[in-house]
Amino acid sequence: MKTFFYLMSALFVMGLAFWAYQENYQTQAALKQSAVLKREIGDLRQELAVLEAEWAYLNRPGRLAELAEINFDTLGLLPLMPEQFGSLEQVAFPPLPGLAISDPIEVRGHIAVGGQFP
Predict the structure, then answer these.
(1) Whole-model pTM?
(2) What is the pLDDT of residues 30-68, one digit of tens each?
(3) Which helix (H) or strand (E) holds 109?
(4) C-beta of residue 27 within 8 angstroms of C-beta of residue 34
(5) How is 21-87 classified by DSSP, letter by letter?
(6) From CA 49, how far away is CA 55, in angstroms rounded?
(7) Could you tell me the CA-to-CA distances from 110 to 24, 55, 100, 103, 114 in Å, in that order?
């Protein structure tokens, strides 16, 4: 019986060693993949910063005004004037969903009618 117990214990220890070995290699692979992804994210962020700087350079107001002036015959662009903008009153906002001001609402056990408590 002791021999069987020793044999089973040895097999169990070898199984645990094999499992630990596999977990170690999977962890190392995951760490390598994480490092690759972090490096790729850093490269993409740097590329994004370069593209944003280029976008800001190309969209300088002076440059755009000059391009609009050069291509006036083709585009017909004019500078914006204050008269071209509307007022806030001209915007048709959708009605707010909810109760009318005269509808009663219950607030902590009290009923308020028209915003007034009894």
Answers:
(1) 0.50
(2) 999 999 999 999 999 999 999 999 999 999 999 998 998
(3) none
(4) no
(5) HHHHHHHHHHHHHHHHHHHHHHHHHHHHHHHHHHHHHHT-HHHHHHHHHHTHHHH------GGGS--
(6) 10
(7) 65, 59, 18, 14, 13
